[in-house]
Amino acid sequence: MVTRESVRRSVLWAAYGDVLGFITEFADKTAVRRRTGREEITSAIPWTRRVGGRFGISIELPAGCYSDDTQLRLATSRAIRSDGGFDVEAFAKVELPVWRSYALGGGRGTKSAARALAKANVQWCSNFFATKYSEYTSAGGNGAAMRIQPHVWAAPRDGDDTTVVRNIVRNAVTTHGHFRGIVGAIFHGLCLRHALLHREAPGPEEWMAITSKLESVPSVLHSDETLGTFWIPLWEEKSGREMSKAFEEARREVASDLLALRNMLGVASLRNEPHELYANAVTELGCFSKDRRGSGTKTAVLATFLAFLFSENPYACVQAAANMLGSDTDTIATMAGAIVGAASSVDVEGQVADSPYMKAEAERLYRISQRESVPNHPYPDLLFWRSPQRETDCVGKNSGHWVVAGLGKAVPCGQPYERKGKQRTFWQWYELDFGQRVLMKRRDNEVAIGDSLVPAQRAEETRSREQRTPSQGQLFGGSETRRIQRAELQRGTLSIDDATDIAIKSNFDSRTVGELLVAIAKGDNGVERATAFGAIVAKAIQARLKRGKNR
Questions:
Q1: pLDDT per position as a tens digit, 190-238
Q2: Which terminal Cβ of the chain has fewer Cβ within 10 Å, N or C?
């Protein structure tokens, strides 16, 4: 039986692994000594890191400070609604673009994706970005796998894996378009689910069984209306490959890596040399090299292997990951920590920043898994939301209060850190209303944050979005749903995502599509929203026609 304690421990051990691994991320022994004055990391300590890239400044981070892994995990958690559904629009259009302004770390792919999602015409299912440094269909890193645990923590224990897998994929494709990133996220999610349900880290036999489960994932993708009708055809067009073949290639890579590690265990003494076994595993998978170190599939495999090796000692588990210099220390530690924490009866005693907030989120997600009524995180009305384009525009004043766009009121903590130059900028710690602390980059002068970028505070405005807007799978599901949908259509406030669903379910009936287009055009920002809706529908029609020709 899954208990609230197992969810809470999984949450905190994942964060503690990130805390330790963040200190040693991308570091050799010399860098670790320079950052900390120590040879090995065994506990949470204050340390110095450069933030803001080449033009940033060095800041002493407090003991227990965590990286982008936990930041994005908390963002995912907030976007999970009381009914267990994933508010992918809020995650893609609010959480990810705003995260850029307080990110501590983060891969190129995730940052490029977040930057693209700040554009009004880019939706979560059409984020096919391409930059000098990163491209969507090549983004196969572990930036998705490291953040998807809340979908597992919130999942009903008596349900099957389909809903969990669908939510994980929807989360992953907002930023990652290579199936290494997507398959790695799914595999990790299913390993964590096994640990929660059975209170044990999955072993070699379970690894292979979970890999076999992955074979059904393409059918889950096709059954999702947005993914199946729009994302898959567009992905195939952009990549020049068949989705099913690309997925199977990544699945086979996971199976091959797991088989190699299982064979390694067969000829080694597990009890005597777990640290050596882990080092051999990292070498076997080539994850000391830069091009494989952050692979979504290989990171998920190593995290599962490490959790099995140290299943009875979570401290040794996360310390082993954090001190394996040259590997992806923080992400492997945080993913292994989630698995071993779910199976352990040992509580974290080391320092983790914002642990009261994490415990509150763990409790909320556990209650969702029990189908209890819980409050949703209040987001701004996405009809009026426009993501700040510059990182320094995300924090400012509204009605005399400091606020972080999209996330709400914030209180400055301590003195700001200044970087002098042509344009003075500051880094300042802020504590958000719900208890998370973020290090924000801001301008010298105060930015005015408009009401449309601030979460609504009145009770009638903080109703969950699934009450105000029918979610996917609920459209035309009942008289009340139809009444809400008609009212929103008349007001011009129906979301583009839901309007697209209606168009698809009508088989692109000309009258239905025309009515939707006119209604959207009559609303606020009608030109931008109608253009985006028209482009999505046109691409979906072209994809359907192309699929029909290829049959």
A1: 999 999 999 999 999 999 999 999 999 999 999 998 999 899 999 999 9
A2: C
Q: Distance (Å, rounded) from C-alpha 163 to C-alpha 97?
A: 26
- What tokens does 507 get? 């088989």
Q: Give the Cα separation of 528 and 120 in Å (integer).
A: 7
DSSP 3-state of 388: coil
Q: Are the CB atoms for 496 and 522 separated by under 8 Å?
A: no
What are the contacts of 355-358 at 24+ separation with CB within 8 A?
355/12, 355/15, 355/64, 356/435, 357/74, 357/434, 357/435, 357/436, 358/11, 358/12, 358/15, 358/74
User: Strand 47-51 relative to strand 425-432: parallel, antiparallel, unpaired?
Assistant: unpaired
CA within 13 Å, CB half, 266: 8
Helix, coil or strand: residue 212 = helix
Other residues' Cβ atoms within 10 Å of the Cβ of residue 531: 15
Name the nearest CA neighbour of 82 among 455, 460, 338, 366: 366
Q: Report d(CA 308, CA 202) in Å as an integer.
A: 7
- The residue whose two tokens read 């699945």 is 251
Chain-centroid distance of CA 18 in Å reads: 15
Which residue reads 């691994």 in tokens? 21
For the stretch 444-488, pLDDT in tens is 888 999 999 999 753 333 333 333 333 333 333 334 344 445 555
pTM (predicted TM-score): 0.85
The number of residues making up the chain comes to: 551
The CA distance from 136 to 543, in Å, is: 19
| Distance of alpha carbon 493 from the chain centroid | 27
Are the beta carbons of 59 and 70 closer than 8 angstroms?
no
514 to 481, 495, 509: CA distances (angstroms): 21, 16, 8
Closest by CA position to 10, among listed 191, 176, 177, 260: 191
Please compute, for residue 140, the number of CA atoms within 13 A of its CA located in the half-sphere on the CB side: 18
Looking at the DSSP assignment, which residues form a beta bridge with residue 58? 50
The structure tokens 């508010």 sit at 87
Rounded distance between C-alpha atoms, residue 174 and residue 267, angstroms = 41
| Cα 249 from Cα 247, distance rounded (Å) | 5
